[in-house]
Amino acid sequence: MNLFLSSVSFILYLVAVCQASGTDIALDAKATLLHRIDSLNLLIYTCLLTLTVLTIWVFKHRRVSWLHETGLAVIYGLIVGAIIRYAGSTNQVTYINVHPAPETKYNLSVPPDMLRLHFPDKMQVSSGDAPVPNKTYAYSFRGEIVNVEQNEIDLKATFDPEIFFNIILPPIIFHAGYCLKRKYFFRNLGAILTFAMVGTALSALVIGALMYGCVQLMPESLATSFTFLDTLYFGALISPTDPLTVLAIFSQLKVDVNLYAMIFGESVLNDAVALVLSGAIQNYELRYSNDGGFEITAFLGAIGDFIGIFSLSLLVGALIGCLTALMTKFTHVREWPLLESALFVLTSYAAFLIAEVCELTGVVAVLFCGICQAHYTYNNLSSDSRNRTKQLFELLNFLAENFIFTYIGVSMFTFPKHHFDPWFIIAGFVTSTLGRAVNIYPLSFLLNLGRNPPIPMNFQHMLFFSGLRGAMSFALAIR
Q1: Which residue stretches of 254-295 are H helix?
Q2: What whole-number distance in Å separates Cα of residue 161 and Cα of residue 478?
Q3: pLDDT band (50, 70, 90) for residue 369
Q4: Which one, of 392, 373, 375, lies nearest residue 384 by Cα?
């Protein structure tokens, strides 16, 4: 019977192949090629992560502490990105320049979501070519392009930014909340909230204002292409810190737990603050600003958006965390640890998705969901689920962070929208440093007026030098 079915399937396959046109065969070959290129790119990133893991093991075995794993990931990514960019490829991206007809009824100020390219029957592109069959092909929107001459590997090595926000970032943010040392976090909550919320907003404002002044002194092409809102948005996306290297060194040196809690707590919260702040700036520009001038009502509306979105996102995450705690407490799902762990992971990710669907901020929701899960749900879990969830999110966090830093290195050469300007880069470094200083020292002075014990000056210096930028800034930039 199996032999008969196999024979019938083979005959049907031969009939389909014989009836296929040359275009169908070419499309199948194209799909196969794209699949191979996708597999090659995934293999490249897998090998890079494997190499990073092995190098980390060697460094730990040899007690090498002068280079962190994220730095290794960036270096390896730079090397592979240069190879992809300059090694050359025969698989160039084919393209047709399409211009909208003048009489079109579509609003040309907004790019369409999809382009349908129709080839009428028996159309001949050029002499000697076979007629193009009567077919319609759909092409999805990929954004503005800068470099037209790209090959397939360059194109595929650059991921959709939504992959970062929907798949890569949630485990990192949830792990930060789930593995938080709550005792010292809440002991220093006032300072953490001040640095993360007031400080991040202040830093973004200082960076935006200084960068706007700098670009006015630059060549006319830059001075005319940047508005104050543009530089303010740049300040918002470059303000969040990611002091992974510093915290790793702190863990080895056994530094003061309060200093560790302040640096870690600020880095956890300011990612969420920066994301909401950048969204509020976009809302100001899109919904309120008409002539580019300052509007007090628009400004107050943007502040209202910031507070409302942040608060509602926090509420969504906390509610999902508490709901999971109740489900694990008053049901017998703990008798099946695998189901219990699956329920825990799915509800935690649902907090992120619910916030995004409601036009809130999933990063804020999943962060506070993680904090609530650690505070309430964790105590209701079975011992197997406790160990499994801790280890699972620790593993996902490790892989996701190293993947992002590897991708940063690769995209230095493959990202299609790069525009390098040395003066803008130098100004960005200087203003980011000044923005960090304005965040730490004045706010520490104000906090010390009512704080006991006060934040020592050497702690303030460490807070200042811990202002490294990382995954969130990169994700916001490519989005």
Answers
A1: 257-283
A2: 6
A3: very high
A4: 392
Q: Write the pLDDT tens digit of every residue in 402-414.
A: 888 888 888 877 7
The pairing of strands 135-140 and 114-119 is: antiparallel
The CA distance from 189 to 371, in Å, is 13
Q: Is 151 helix (H, G, I), strand (E, B) or coil?
A: strand
- Structure tokens given for 146: 């800068």
Could you tell me the end-to-end alpha-carbon distance of the chain, in angstroms, rounded to an integer?
Answer: 54
CB 476 within 8 A of CB 238: no
Q: Are 478 and 165 in contact (CB under 8 A)?
A: no
Cβ contacts of 68 within 8 Å, gap of 6 or more: 244, 245, 248, 249
| φ, ψ (nearest 5 deg) of residue 6 | -65, -40
pLDDT tier, 7 (very low <50, low <70, confident <90, very high otherwise): low
Q: What is the pLDDT of residue 308?
A: 87
Q: What is the pLDDT of residue 18?
A: 55
Query: What average pLDDT is seen over the chain?
Result: 79
In whole angstroms, what is the distance from residue 94 CA to residue 326 CA?
56
Distance CA 89, CA 91 (A): 5
